[in-house]
Amino acid sequence: MLGKRPEQRIGRVGAMAMAVVLAGCSTAATSTTTTTTSTSGAPEPVEIVLMTHDSFAVSDEVLETFEDETGIEVRILRSGDAGQMVNQAVLTKDNPLADVIFGVDNTFLSRALEAGVFEPYQSPLLAVVPDDLEFDPRVTPIDFGDVCINWDKAYLANGAPPPPESLLDLTDPSYRGLLVVENPATSSPGLAFLFSTIATFGESGDYVWQNYWEDLRENDVLVTSGWEEAYYSYFTAASDGDRPLVVSYASSPPFEVIFAEEPIDEPPTAVMTEGCFRQIEFAGIVAGTEARPAAEQVIDFLLSKQFQDDIPLNMFVFPASTDATLPPAFVEHAVVPEDPLSLPAGEIEANRQRWIEEWTEVMAG
What we know:
The protein is of the alpha/beta class. It has twelve helices and ten strands.
């Protein structure tokens, strides 16, 4: 899950749990409507179910304009964190709950592709998307962001300990009990952070990624199920928690400025730019949809300039389109790591499940 909605400051954990329950209980979400023509000759509305994670956000006027212009009614089905959403999409692929899915990122993408959740579609608007964001013809890149360690400036202001500068710093006893991360089995930023440790420490040599996580465990790292719980229940800069270090996004600081309760000029948080992992979010047409033409229009809408311009201040990530315009506040306060980490898609596909299982064993002690 990359983006964050401002309304999540109230009732975030409860809302997330309710979204999961509602998504799991839905039995009639699949659109069976196709474009038809009424006796008057006017096209009747087509309903498209868009499954997404809890942090999906779009301005009302942007979505309403699309619906008015196309006659397509978009029903949004929020389905928990990205990992929970993918799990649900895979489990229901023979009787899908949606026509289009948004928010599958490169940390969970291989599972969805292996399960045959999506069918191919190449939007004509891909011409304005950099090639390095494209992974597979079955999915369309919509946005990207970098998963990084965020730290509370006020908490670490006295230099004891100083702000960390590297992943290895986090194993130092001076940071004992200060870090909260997300479970890679259920959270996309959690999985991205796991991948960053694998990309950094590798699987061979005297000190590998499993050793690193053993050291984090011994240093009293806290693991939560998802980003919202970590950030809004335990991170000191955003909650009454006691953890000044959190796995979040390089774009989190502008969020804190723009949606501060009282106006502020500088964010209360900062980003450790070493060890960041580049996360890309995709959208795809669900295999077997009975509203394929409308589903294609929804994908095109997600890549349109109107939607892409709307992304930064709604989901606080970077739009995939090079034609998009970034708002000044986002440009001023967002951090873009110069050299984000990545792993080859094939390597992720071949090892993702094993890595999660090995991480679980390490953290179980």
